[in-house]
Amino acid sequence: MVQAIVETMHCPFCQNPDTKVIDTRISEDGHSIRRRRECPKCAKRFTTVETTMLLVVKRSGNVEQFDRNKVISGVRKACQGRPINEDDLKTLGQRVEEDLRSRGLAQVKSDEVGKAILKPLRDLDVVAYMRFASVYQNFENLEDFQHAIDELKGDVK
Ligand SMILES: [Zn+2]
């Protein structure tokens, strides 16, 4: 495992080496992270911008840069005919990226990307979720579908 960001972030006001992150935002293109920080010592706030690489290790062993658009095109097929618009897909791509980046790793396996898609897709549309899950998780028989449906029902509150 590789740590994406190795840093010692000193407070620019009092040089205190310990700062607290109070807000994290990912830029539109997904390649940089703005963090709002607060110094626990002098209580001043400041913003840092970090550019990080997020790499995806494919099953073949190839490594490529994470691409939100690939996530979107991966789920688009499962969303056919469902009441899901481009904005929904964009939001989903963003949630997946934020989830993966929040782990603080420089690289993730393509399996992890697939897993990270499942939850936001389920929140978006259960039918699209079932379609995607059935392909991604290699559903082989009715029991697999039934199991997934039971899980879905268990989640309904
Ligand atoms: Zn300070």
Compute the separation of the termini in Å: 37 Å
Number of domains: 2
SSE ordering: EEEEEHHEHHH
Give the rounded overall mean pLDDT: 86
Number of helices: 5
* Poorly predicted tracts of residues: 1-6
Give the distinct bound molecules. zinc ion
Strand content: 15-25%
Give the helix/strand class.
alpha+beta
Function: Negatively regulates transcription of bacterial ribonucleotide reductase nrd genes and operons by binding to NrdR-boxes.
Domain ATP-cone: 54-144
Family: Belongs to the NrdR family.
GO molecular function: ATP binding; DNA binding; zinc ion binding
Please describe what this structure looks like.
The chain is α+β, with helices and mostly antiparallel strands and 157 residues long. The chain folds into two domains: 20-51; 55-155, no CATH class. Helix content is 41%, strand content 19%. The protein is built from five helices and six strands. The strands form two sheets. Strands 1-2-3 form a three-stranded antiparallel β-sheet, with no helix packed on it. The longest helix has 16 residues, at 86-101. The model is unreliable at 1-6 (pLDDT under 50). Bound molecules: zinc ion (ZN). The site of zinc ion has 8 residues, from loops. Its cofactor is Zn(2+). Residues 54-144 form the ATP-cone domain. Belongs to the NrdR family. A zinc finger (unnamed) spans 11-42.
